[in-house]
Please model this.
Amino acid sequence: MKAGHMSLLSHYILLSVTLLCHGNDQFFNDNENLILPGSYDIPWMAGIQDFKTLSLITFPGTHDSMARYGGPLAERQALSLRDQLRAGIRFLDLKVFGLGDTLYVMRGVMYQHSTLKEVLDTVRAFLSEFKTEAVLIRVEPSLSLQKKSVNKMVQYLTGNDQQHVWLTSGMPTFGQVRGKIVFLQKSTFTLGIPMIDTDAKGKTKVSNVKDKDNKIIKQLNKANEACGGDNAILTYTSGTGLGTFWGMFLTPKRVAEKVNPWLNQYIRQFYPNQPRPCFGIVAMDFPGIDLIQTVIKLNWW
Model:
């Protein structure tokens, strides 16, 4: 076979393998370069009525939103914060460590090349461009003993700017928070709307992906039952097999690669429902734009 034909055949095989592995649908994404279709609706919240209570909305979010560095044990996302927001993500999950007068964003002991101030500046810039949107943020101190200092530092960073930030505990209508950063509080962080995690035990270990799927179903059922109440409801679909015997090779990326397409199919079964269920915040690892859109479309019927 001629060299040119050999090269062409090799290229064809590589392309075929790529398509078989990833498909045309983007439910899982580990590519750091965001490519949105020309018709992509970035400000999707423009269609949400002002009178609708925040706890009646389903939000696509990311778990450990800034965790893009540190290798397979630490990494949870591929897209930058700016690109996550443009892709439709409206909930951010941030672990922070205070040192001096600065809050550093962390994943475990790994610094994620950003401070909380830089995160807030990026979100503010996004909301300045897309004024119909709102972005929910959970801040969690990496060390529980920093609870008081982290609260004070966040208050300092926001400057009690009520025009652009929601820090109170009352459940607002969407009109009250449109264009704002909305903080969520739980245990070690006490600013913003109270939040309930549907996995009360907080266990993320995965040794069998099918078991993880069944666990997510139970969590989403809990979220739907609590929809419309006085708390924000959060479900993490993320997990890792690290630390378990049977799942020792299931890195967070490998778990997401299996869970995300299943999650997309599970959610789409509710599309014929009138009304569709409300799942609160669905926080994911490595979500693709098609999965993000599937979560968003729960809000329309």
Notes: The helical segments are 3-22, 81-87, 116-129, 147-158, 174-177, 209-226, 252-268, 289-296. The mean pLDDT is 91. Residues 53-299 form a domain with the TIM Barrel fold (CATH 3.20.20.190). The beta strands are 59-62, 91-99, 102-107, 110-115, 135-141, 165-166, 181-185, 193-197, 232-236, 281-284.
